[in-house]
Design brief:
By secondary structure, this protein is of the alpha+beta class. The protein has helices at residues 7-16, 63-68, 103-111, 114-132, 137-156, 170-188, 194-203, 225-246, 259-272, 288-312, 350-359; strands spanning 3-4, 20-35, 41-48, 53-59, 76-85, 91-100.
Length: 364
């Protein structure tokens, strides 16, 4: 039976085996009719699912060519064929066919694999647990209001269009990882305002809900006019101010620091999180929380780019010093990382040896 794979799983398998008989479910991100240099027409089909995108070509002498003529951008399809990795030319297929997906299969595809669903659910739980731990009632109310009002959109937004976490649910993954880093560092630096830091992580990229958010029924990261004209930093600031105005403020006048100072410091985190003026920040980080947020954001983005490079590389990942393809945002061609040291099977693990000695009665 032909296995149903995600695009990411298909690419991994094709790097290991010379050819793979497989089926995949995906959305047509772009369908374009073109002519080859010899004048022969073909369709270029860009497919995307919750993991990655890939491109196939349907020539006139294939059944896929005729089917493509009745399809359009945004349609959901099943693709069946024999796939192989053609080195620098990427994934290719022979004798592939496609058909439209029925509604029930579309719903399953949008939800992602069971592993993907579990990953995103854990990410959302980490964020909600962090918000639940906030002590400042103003910051907690603001975060709760955001999750209540924009939760579904937040859960499907991407963190970028190409560099890192550029997929449905990517912003949730990115924010969750950053939240774990932030809370850990707050334990190292108790001078940091933990409540403000938690809110800063949650809100720093919320403007991307209108800049890099797939539609409710799709995977494509299509730009919205609001995102194109204002950018996610400006939208994030506007969002916090709008939510803040709508909150019930009874008793706030008795709290310190002042509510206006709390709001301004949170807005500063959003405005300064790119860290440098040339990277789009209208202001440089001027508080410890703003500096920490910038560094955490940069760390998680860079780690994702390294890991994605290793996943996408056709090099032998087990090589001693195998280098990947050049990654422009990193400015390097990543090198295969050093694995952790494992004890020799013939030697006892140090901890086990210690406990066995501890249990041995001393000679009198």
């Amino acid at each position: 039976m032909t296995s149903l794979l995600s695009i990411s799983e298909l690419k991994k398998t094709a790097r290991i085996h010379s050819s793979v008989e497989a089926k995949l479910h995906a959305q047509i991100e772009r369908l374009t009719r073109k002519d080859a240099s010899n004048g022969k027409p073909f369709y270029e089909v860009v497919l995307r699912d919750a993991t990655e995108s890939m491109t196939l070509r349907a020539w006139t002498d294939t059944g896929a060519f005729e089917t493509c003529g009745s399809l359009q951008n945004g349609d959901f399809v099943a693709v069946i064929g024999c796939f192989q990795n053609n080195g620098s030319f990427g994934l290719d297929a022979r004798g592939w066919e496609l058909r439209e997906l029925p509604n029930e299969e579309i719903e399953v595809l949008l939800e992602g694999t069971s592993e993907r669903r579990a990953l995103l659910e854990r990410a959302y739980e980490k964020i909600t647990e962090a918000v639940a731990s906030i002590v400042d009632p103003r910051i907690k109310a603001l975060c709760d209001q955001f999750l209540s009002q924009y939760g579904p959109r937040f859960r499907r937004a991407a963190a970028a269009r190409g560099n890192h976490h550029a997929r449905r649910g990517g912003l949730l993954e990115h924010t969750s990882r950053m939240m774990e880093c932030a809370l850990a560092l707050c334990g190292v630096y108790p001078e940091i305002n933990r409540d403000l830091m938690t809110a800063g992580v949650l809100f720093h990229d919320t403007g991307k809900l209108w800049e890099t958010c797939p539609p409710e029924k799709g995977f494509g990261i299509e730009p919205e006019l609001r995102g194109e004209l204002l950018g996610h930093l400006s939208i994030g600031i506007e969002l916090v101010n709008t939510l803040w105005r709508d909150l019930q403020k009874e008793g706030w006048e008795m709290l310190t620091p002042s509510s206006d100072d709390v709001r301004l410091h949170l807005l500063h985190l959003i405005a300064a999180h790119h860290g440098q003026l040339e990277f789009g920040s209208p202001i440089l980080p001027k508080t410890p929380e703003a500096a920490m947020l910038h560094f955490i954001d940069n760390i998680d983005a860079r780690m994702e780019m390294f890991f994605t490079s290793y996943e996408a590389s056709s090099q032998n990942a087990g090589g001693r010093s195998g280098t990947m393809e050049w990654v422009r945002p990193l400015g390097v061609a990543p090198v295969t990382p050093l694995p952790a040291c494992l004890p020799s099977p013939s030697e006892p693990i140090i901890e086990d040896l210690f406990f066995s000695l501890a249990k041995t009665p001393a000679k009198k």
